[in-house]
C-alpha cells in the first residue's frame, strides 16, 4: 500500500496531519504497536522539519508485508553539513519556531533513534530527502 | 486512576473534552519541548506544559497521551480546544507552576 501527502512549508496549523493519517492506516493494518510508536515519532519529527525549514515537501509511505518505508522529499535550503545537523542540540530553527517548543535540535537524533534504517540525502539550495525504514 | 480522579484531587480546570475524562492515566511527563515529548512521553501520560498552541494536540494524539495540563494559568488557543474535542483528549489547567504540579501528580501516581 502506498500513501502520499503534500506538506506546505511554514504552515504549522497542519503540522502532524500526514503523520496522523499514516498512524491511522498502520493501526488499521494491525501493525505491531511497538513499530507504530517508533514510526510515529520519526515521521512527526521529519514532517515538522519540512514545515519548519523547507518550502514544500512530499511524504510517501509504502507499507508491505516486509516493512514500512517512508520517504520525505522537500524543496528547501538543503543541509550543508549533515553530520552537524545530526548533533543533538544543534538547530537552525528560527526564534519563532523555537518559542513554539520546536527547533531544540532533537528532531534528527529522534528520527535516528526510532528508525531501523535512516538515510539523508541533501543538496544545498535544492532540498533534502529522508529515507526512514522499518522491517517487520 | 483516570483523568477525572486527577482533576478532582488537584482541583484542575477542564477547558475541553469533558466527555473524555475517563481516559486512563499511567504516568506523567513535564516538558515544553515538543520533540522531547514526542521522543519520551508514553501512552497514557498526563503532559504538563505551558505551550498553548494546537500543535500540542497533534503530539498528544500521536502519542496517545491521557490529557494535557497547562500550568501558571495559561489558557489553550481556540483551535487547540477544537482539536482537543475532536481527538477526545482533554486540555486541563491550573494556577500552579510546573514544579508544584509535577510534584503533586508524582505523589499521586507513584
Structural class designation of chain B: alpha/beta
Tally of structural domains of chain B:
1
**What would you call the shape of chain A?**
globular
Number of domains of chain A: 1
According to CATH, the homologous superfamily of chain A is Histidine kinase-like ATPase, C-terminal domain
Please give the share of residues in helix of chain A: 25-40%
Multimeric status of the protein: heterodimer
Strand order of the largest sheet of chain A: 1-2-3-5-4
Indicate the CATH class of chain B: Alpha Beta
The proportion of residues in beta strands of chain B is 15-25%
Largest sheet of chain A: 5 strands, antiparallel
CATH fold-level assignment of chain A: Heat Shock Protein 90
Q: How many H/I helical runs of chain B?
A: 5
Strand percentage of chain A: 25-35%
Give helix % range of chain B. Answer: 40-55%
Order of helices and strands of chain B: HEEHEHEHEH
| Biggest interface, residues from each chain | A-B, 23 and 20 residues
Radius of gyration of chain B from CA coordinates: 12 Å
Query: pLDDT under 50 segments of chain A (min length 5)?
Result: none
Amino acid at each position: 500500500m502506498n500513501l502520499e501527502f503534500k506538506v506546505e512549508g511554514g504552515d504549522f496549523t497542519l503540522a502532524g496531519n500526514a503523520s496522523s493519517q499514516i498512524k491511522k492506516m498502520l493501526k488499521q493494518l494491525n501493525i505491531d504497536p511497538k513499530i507504530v510508536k517508533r514510526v510515529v515519532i520519526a515521521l512527526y519529527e521529519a514532517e515538522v522539519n519540512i514545515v519548519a525549514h523547507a518550502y514544500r515537501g512530499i511524504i510517501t509511505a509504502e507499507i508491505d508485508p516486509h516493512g514500512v518505508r517512508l520517504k520525505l522529499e522537500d524543496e528547501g535550503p538543503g543541509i550543508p553539513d549533515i553530520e552537524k545537523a545530526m548533533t543533538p542540540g544543534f538547530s537552525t530553527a528560527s526564534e519563532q519556531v523555537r518559542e513554539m517548543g520546536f527547533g531544540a535540535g532533537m528532531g534528527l537524533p529522534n528520527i535516528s533513534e526510532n528508525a531501523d534504517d535512516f538515510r539523508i540525502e541533501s543538496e544545498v539550495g535544492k532540498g533534502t530527502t529522508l529515507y526512514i525504514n522499518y522491517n517487520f | 486512576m483516570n483523568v477525572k480522579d486527577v482533576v478532582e484531587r488537584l482541583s484542575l480546570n477542564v477547558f475541553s473534552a469533558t466527555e473524555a475524562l475517563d481516559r486512563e492515566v499511567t504516568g506523567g511527563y513535564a516538558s515544553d519541548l515538543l520533540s522531547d515529548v514526542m521522543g519520551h512521553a508514553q501512552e497514557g501520560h498526563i503532559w504538563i506544559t505551558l505551550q498553548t498552541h494546537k500543535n500540542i494536540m497533534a503530539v498528544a494524539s500521536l502519542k496517545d497521551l491521557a490529557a494535557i495540563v497547562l500550568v501558571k494559568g495559561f489558557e489553550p488557543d481556540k483551535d487547540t480546544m477544537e482539536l482537543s474535542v475532536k481527538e477526545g483528549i482533554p486540555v486541563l489547567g491550573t494556577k500552579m507552576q510546573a514544579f508544584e504540579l509535577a510534584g503533586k501528580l508524582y505523589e499521586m501516581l507513584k
